[in-house]
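Shape matters. As here.
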Amino acid sequence: MEGLMVMGDAGTPRLRSGGYQAWLVGLLSLNFGIVFFDRQALNVLMPFVQPELGLSNAQIGLLAGGLSFTWAIAAFAIGRLSDTIGNRKLLLVGATLGFSLCCFLSGMATSFLFMLCARMLMGAAEGGVMPISHAMVASEVDPRRRGLAQGIAQNFGSNLLGSFLAPVLLVWFGLEFGWRNAFFLASIPGIICALLIWFTLEEPAAPARPQVQDGQAQGVLSVLRTRNVLVCVLLGVLMVSYFVICLTFLPIYLTSVRSYTPTEMSWLIATLGISATIGSFAISGLSDWIGRRPVMIAMPLLGIILPLGALYWSGSIWGLVPIFFFGWGLNGIFPLFMATVPSESVDPRQAATALGLTMGSAEILGGVFAPSLTGVAADATSLAAPLWIMVVLAILGGIVAIFLTETAPSQRARMAAAS
């Protein structure tokens, strides 16, 4: 990766080496992977937690929704705070230590209320991690590699650790040593990662401040009036709803309705992690090449096959593996609508605000209400209801993405040359 010229503290140019850029992206990707490792822990351990705590489907949905609610508030508030005070590294280290502690508290839960409080505190700590991380990548990494870099930062670690390793390791650990000890295990890596961030990363240079005309709005409303930001907010609500519903209810559906063992379920869920890990390179890199818009239209529609496969596939369990793998490909566009497109559409000074707005709106409207209402629907009908809701969300996501304006530098350069 080529070096990028940035401004030093004294306003003089300073070169970030390609090695530093790669380390920054890799470490932030690892950190967000630990975030999702901790977040995913409750979902994959739910077959053990549910009977011991006596949870209903509605309460399972509320646990996911409660975490998403505080995540959403923190995503916006901490993203906005990091834009204001500029000390992104300190905020990131504090958030990392905070969510590690809350994962430990989850293992101590003795009731629904205790678990709900622990998960809401975790959401408050985790919510600011991604807006700050994306803002750091946007300011430190060559813009020509921004889509790929932000895809790796958000999707590679989160899916390798959260979607692949978490179900396999934590389900095995829970079977061998109990689900509470699995939570205690999950709390350790974040502390190590916080130390690495503190000692190896530099505070990003403040972005240049272009001249602003008198009376020009620079707040949240001006960001939301940007067409691409608004489309990304809507797309985020739909896709985060799909994501949270899937990870909350699919493990229970596979064990309770399809009668797969916890180990079989863990490997099927791990397939999603492999898919999204590869997608962190392939989908984001493809968007750098052919453009953001066509990729963001196609991938949600591909997501239809995952819930339909879970509902109707009657063959060997191995037949579900490619269905889950390709259906979960829509996860590859998450960094695009949460980070890349918004950051390419607004003033650099408002990057973390735009990212916090898209992530926060997606979490609070998609992550909070979707699993809670879906849990009620599942109690009223059956556990097939969450999967049918996923089908509808995938179709709507593809339709909403049609209204995006292209932002990929490669495509904008081609359009400029053509005109």
Notes: The chain has a mean pLDDT of 83.
